Give the backbone structure.
Amino acid sequence: MAKILVTGGTGFIGSHTVVELINEGYEVIVLDNLYNSKEVVLDRIKTITNVRPKFYNCDILDKDGLRKVFSENKIDAVIHYAGYKAVGESVEKPLVYYQNNIAGSLNLYEVMNEFGVKTVVFSSSATVYGDPASLPIKEDFPLSTTNPYGTTKLFNERILEDIYASDNSWSILLLRYFNPIGAHKSGLLGETPIGIPNNLVPYIAQVATGQRDFLRVWGNDFDTVDGTGVRDYIHVVDLALGHIKAIEYALKHKGIEAINLGTGNGYSVLQVRQAFENACKKEIPYKIFDRRAGDIASCYADTTKAKELLKWQAKYGIDEMCQDGWNFSKNNPKGIE
Ligand code: NAD
Ligand code: UFG
């Protein structure tokens, strides 16, 4: 089986992907600088899979560190998750985001090229569609961004397109994730937000565990089913399984493709709150606030391309996402420690 390097492999999506790669029989190398995750995640991966993957505590800004990883392992393909992801923080610290997410990625692509490793699956985001003119969102929609984080995703896509244009022996997948939530069924892996959660479900989870008093609903005057924002939430395990299909595809086909990973279904803030209440069997109090700057009304994916090209489609619904998310949050109220 192929040997896969997972950058950001101890993070939220990365750790779930590592589990599924090991389950499929791949040999996995994990690289992370532990900026937003803990090494103990590797022990939890071992509890689930019986395998503790080889780990490099390495920063993608450290090019020699990257060279060491590639010289010590015959890597066949890379899944590149490492990066910063907080939209608000990126507005305050654009240089930090450009440095980490763009300079870091450039280092990685350069070192891959040096070692002749030309297969990469990149973590992009539905944020590259900006405010879409219509729904569902297809991959050929116009691209634009509203914050530096989103710009780092779009620049990475452009850089990878230019790399492919210059050398078509590369195999590149740009996976545009919608809104990943939920957790591993074991309750051992999940998301650990730093500080006050920015995203909806981690915030609701902290209301459910008593760490916050109520949910702040950012606006109820959007043109949606109940006025609150609609998003395409996807179970993180489905997303991880999408990466398994993506790696299978990328190892067989040269080229570059952008592919949406979502369910194709949209749920409003109040619908998600209801599903989480059902899962945790507690009331989640909420108050309506003004809209959050930059938020769009609705966002959900056209999933046709993922079905056709990758033979993948999400199988979990919103209730299972909330049940698994709650199972993790109640067992790990302060996240993975
Ligand atoms: P995460 O923060 O849990 O994982 C990212 C990991 O990368 C962390 O473990 C962090 O320590 C590591 N990292 C950061 N900078 C690094 C560096 N310079 N060198 C080495 N490691 C570094 O985030 P996640 O939710 O798992 O997201 C993974 C990827 O998916 C990110 O690129 C993110 O932008 C993208 N993405 C996430 C979402 C989402 O809502 N979670 C949506 C779309 C795209
Ligand atoms: N929301 C609230 N209260 C909160 C948090 C969120 O009402 O406390 C609402 C938002 O207004 C929005 C919805 O819940 O309508 C979802 O918000 P999130 O912050 O969870 O997610 P976003 O869709 O805004 O953004 C997320 C990631 C981005 C990524 C994007 C698309 O944070 O990085 O999905 O993948 F780009």
Q: What stands out?
A: The chain has eleven helices and 14 strands. The mean pLDDT is 97. The first helix runs from residue 12 to 23.
